[in-house]
Write a structure and sequence with these properties.
The protein has 332 residues and is mostly helical. Helix content is 69%, strand content 9%. The chain contains ten helices and three strands, in the order H-H-H-H-H-H-H-H-E-E-H-E-H. Helix 1 packs parallel to helix 6 (163-192) and helix 2 (38-64) runs parallel beside helix 7. The longest helix has 34 residues, at 2-35.
Length: 332
Amino acid sequence: MARRQQEQESALTVLVALAANFGIAIAKIIAAVLTGSASLAAEAAHSVADTFNEVLLWVGLRRSGRPADRRHPLGHGKERYIWTLLVAVAIFGMGALFAFYQGVETLLGHHAGEADPLAGYLVLAVSFVLEGISWRRALRQVRADARAEDLSVPDFIRRTDEPTSISVLLEDSAALVGLLLAFAGLGLHQLTGAAVWDGVGSILIGVLLTAVALVLGRINLNLLVGRQADPRMVRDIRRRLGEAEEIEWVADIVTVTFGADTVLVCARLDFRDTLTAGEVERACVRMARELRAAHAEIDEVFLEPVPRDDPELRARVIERYGRIAPPPTESS
């Protein structure tokens, strides 16, 4: 239920941003043509890119929500990260590169002179209000999701496996800063008569969009490669398995995030030698059920009985972590 509610909130956030960016893009294009401002042209490209990006985010939400099937036994959750990674590429390719181009053209004196900037100021003011509405919506959702995870907003952004709302928040934050840069470039051009300010504003917008694209790209690249679950969850899984009466030692735990709020758990356990095969089987079923009950994000649990002194296992664990967790003492 919580996962479905979060997906609905993410979809609403994307739709609000899509409506705002579409209207803003049209207005900025008209204003850029009327004023001849490079900063406004860069901002128009920025809004066109954002509109296209919201469509990609919506497609990612829809496709990643499809249920698991025979060919995709773990579902389609990772597809969301692919579409969000495309958003990062689009921000750079459609927004940042065009902004750099406009800025360099203006600095080289190849840009047409600026006409009456009044239309530009009006469009920038209206755009700021509309972007602010979308930004507040995205910020409210990110804060709510962070509170639900008992994390600060910066920590949530670093750890989240649901990048949709983060993408919208970063896009809208960049849009608001970009509007201020465009306003400054337009105003300084008008006050000084020097087009260099308009070109500098456009280049700064390109730098801003490049930074946002790199942050989004890094977040989604980590999720696509395969990132472990929240460290707090991993510690709790180790504690719960280690406290089971059938377990002598938790040799290894591997967790992988493979979708929004969807975690795969694999654990290698040294069972007590006095247990029968049937008792081991029942213990595995019970522990898997308890883990899923404790953490709604856990979707699949695989438990493997292993001897603690197996040299190959020890080598693999040491290679991955650099050490082996010591077995519990009798007093613990």
